[in-house]
Design brief:
This protein has 189 residues and is an alpha/beta fold. The protein is built from 6 helices and 6 strands. Strands 2-1-3-4-5-6 form a 6-stranded parallel sheet, sandwiched between helices. The protein is globular and about 45 Å long. The chain starts with 12 loop residues before the first strand and ends with a helix.
Length: 189
């Protein structure tokens, strides 16, 4: 993966946004951080608490400052609920140029049930989000029972994104033994 520098002596930025009750330093997220750092990225991977409420607002407050200087050489990788947070972030960023690439792993935009609907309303502004990113890839697993493949497929359709379907990855959880994710490195520009 070739990396072009944003300006003299600066590294491209990779923002990694984990999902519910996860740890960005463990499993494939920590592995990815190490790989991207070795490739010259400045990796930003905040640990987002699930204890503070309102959750989505708190996560946005933690991520927003880390995304203020993203540019055409930047990369965002998000997992599960982190994908929804990234969608909301992209709606509200005032970027001079689109971000280089976002990769949404087990991503979704819709409520899994009626009781959660208020957290996912209104539906994201798809045209605005598409204008903020050069390339979007959605990754799903055929055996994901937490974010079913049809939900990730609908997200990819809304974003006009490439959809990569993988076998036997479940919900891509480091806590369930997914320590590495070499297929992801092949997808990153």
């Amino acid at each position: 993966m070739a990396i072009e520098s944003r300006a003299a002596n600066t590294s491209p930025v990779a923002l990694i946004v984990h999902g519910w009750n996860d740890n960005p330093e463990e499993g494939w997220l920590g592995w990815l951080s190490e790989r991207l750092t070795a490739q010259g990225y400045e990796v930003r991977a905040p640990h987002l608490s699930t204890q503070e409420r309102p959750l989505l607002q708190r996560w946005d407050e933690q991520i927003r400052p880390l995304a203020a200087d993203l540019d055409e050489h930047s990369l965002i990788v998000a997992h599960s609920l982190g994908c929804f947070i990234v969608l909301r972030l992209l709606e509200s960023l005032d970027l001079p140029r689109p971000i280089g690439q976002i990769v949404l792993v087990s991503g979704f935009y819709d409520a899994p049930n009626e009781s959660a609907r208020r957290f996912f309303s209104p539906e994201p502004n798809w045209a605005l989000i598409r204008s903020q990113v050069k390339k979007t890839v959605c990754i799903a697993s055929g055996d994901d029972t937490i974010v079913t493949p049809d939900r990730s497929r609908r997200l990819a359709h809304k974003l006009d994104a490439e959809l990569v379907m993988l076998a036997e990855k479940g919900h891509f959880l480091g806590s369930r033994g997914m320590a590495t994710f070499p297929e992801l490195l092949d997808i990153l520009d």
